[in-house]
């Protein structure tokens, strides 16, 4: 038998690579004592918590079937109900086509600017996300809603972001939708995700059951040094392994920092920008107070950025009659966490009471906060050049190049159609390793593609 492929990280990308290459041909090294990375699910006092809201909205039938098989077809499928909170007002999502719920005189100003923006027809592409927002929505709406949310979610003003990641993620409304939506609710919702699937029980992690079964995972193995020159990996527990082929799913800045990369490459990797997330889980002694699956909060004087209730994902996620509210608060090197997490959590509780998501402080039964160092890759203007420098160096070390390696997303149908065998022995896989806007289905599909390139069981 040939040397096993060494896979770093047992998140979805690492597990998918192992499953599709063949578990008997791979060994996976994971720093934690559990599988799943960002899709790990915890059950605490009868509440099921994912690491931030996770739902499957994949368009790939292969992933749909894999996930469905993992939970023996026991999944829920429902349309998403998303909401927006703005200065005491509840606005259905997307707000741009539900202006009827925006208070006056703001509503009329949004409408006026929207029509003005569609009248102007610029011939050049937008310079940045702020420019894109202004052209798509007009100045008033852009500055009041998405620009404010961008500062909270992406932790940067929109002019510091590119537009290559936007795709269908931000709904670009038609003139008719905006005009009609200013009078009253549209007959059909216009969110970019229409139907989602979520495991009936076990949280999102249940979707990884099939690909995780039989994986050779070595837990408590935190990578401390990768020598690309010697083809060895050293772990904090003192173990050292050699590799013929390496698949890394570690965050790219971590991989490079803990390797024999030269200084300019290390500096480029350090320049890659990512948000961190403080998750605040709050339980209360009453049923869900709001009908939405998740809620965007625009007020910049609030820490709360996005809210979901775990029992709205699946009723099995919480004891009957109780609500498990998960709040996301974002940070980055541009907005460092300057308070103790418990102080942020206390303010989040105040905000939940103010917004009416919790009936009162006396209803709160527990509060917990969890820090997630890598949350969302930030698509700022420096990303492409920094990523290019890092990837060019890795190619000199034997990394297989990708034709879309700087693009934020991947078209898997096109990629699989062109995937062919490669002799290179280093591969990056997953959201943080490839530094992309990858969802869970992308992490699965990367494993499918690797098997096509290297040969595998999948
Ligand atoms: C808040 C939030 C909400 C999301 N919602 C959705 C959603 O609704 N739908 C969806 O499809 N996707 C969603 N995603 C994206 C999804 O979580 C990721 O695309 C996916 O889980 C990434 O998997 P990965 O294997 O690439 O990375 P990871 O899950 O990060 O796996 C990497 C693994 O490497 C391990 N590791 C790290 N450093 C070391 C080291 N030094 N040594 C050894 N091991 C190490 C980690 O512990 C981890 O297990 C969301 C992401 C976030 C942050």
Ligands (ions, cofactors included): flavin-adenine dinucleotide
- Any guess at the CATH architecture of the largest domain? 3-Layer(bba) Sandwich
CATH first level of the largest domain: Alpha Beta
List low-pLDDT spans. none
Overall number of structural domains: 3
Q: Give the CATH H-level superfamily of the largest domain.
A: FAD/NAD(P)-binding domain
What structural class should be given to the helix and strand makeup?
alpha/beta
- The helix content, as a percent range, equals 25-40%
Question: For the CA atoms, what is the radius of gyration?
Answer: 23 Å
The CATH topology assignment of the largest domain is FAD/NAD(P)-binding domain
Helix count equals 15
Average pLDDT reading: 94
Percent of residues in β-strands: 15-25%
The CA-CA distance between the termini, in Å, is 18 Å
Largest sheet: 7 strands, mixed
Widest beta sheet: strand line-up: 7-6-15-16-17-14-18
Tell the overall outline. Answer: globular
Q: How would you characterize this protein structure?
A:
The radius of gyration is 23 Å and the shape is globular. The protein folds into 3 domains: 5-35 and 215-273 and 380-454, FAD/NAD(P)-binding domain; 44-80 and 193-201 and 275-373, Alpha-Beta Complex (Polyamine Oxidase, Chain A, domain 2); 94-181, no CATH class. It has 15 helices and 19 strands. It is an alpha/beta fold. The longest helix is centred in the C-terminal third of the chain and has 15 residues, at 341-355. Bound molecules: flavin-adenine dinucleotide. Flavin-adenine dinucleotide (FAD) binds at residues 8-14, 29-32, 37-39, 52-56, 221-223, 249-250, 254, 277, 328, 375, 430-432, 438-441, 443.
